[in-house]
Amino acid sequence: MYGPEFLVWIPSQGVFATYFMSSKTARREAKKMEPLLGKAATFRCKLIDSGRFKWHGPVVVPCSSPLEVPALDAIKGEVEKFQNPPKSDIEIADDASDSDRVR
To answer: How far apart are CA 61 and CA 36, in angstroms?
Structure first.
């Protein structure tokens, strides 16, 4: 999987989240997201009909309504965590070959 990942603020939930634009459709739409970095954007969904297949894809447009954002310190903290994620701790599973369990 590949594609750009954006840190977004969801005002209705009051939380930060990440949006991984990994599908072909989302990667194309991500180009519209880049000019809106640091600005408010609205994400919508649209049905795409190729004639043979149908699927839903994202649509990114500039936000037209006023937006309440968190304090600048909170934003800076979230951006720092987003840009420098903690090292992941990989947990190795026990060897299943020693198990008496029927498979």
So the answer is: 9
Query: Beta-carbon neighbour count of residue 21 at 10 Å?
Result: 20
Residue 36: strand, helix, or coil: helix
Strand-pair partners of 47: 56
What residue numbers bound the domain in which 21 lies? 5-85
**Separation between Cα atoms, residue 14 and residue 63, nearest integer Å:** 17
Per-residue pLDDT tens over the stretch 37-76: 888 999 999 999 999 999 999 999 999 888 888 999 999 9
**Residue type for 96, please?**
A
User: Domains in the chain: how many in total?
Assistant: 1
Output the furthest CA–CA distance in the chain (Å, rounded): 62
Task: Tell whether 103 is covered by a domain.
Answer: no
Does residue 47 lie in a domain region? yes
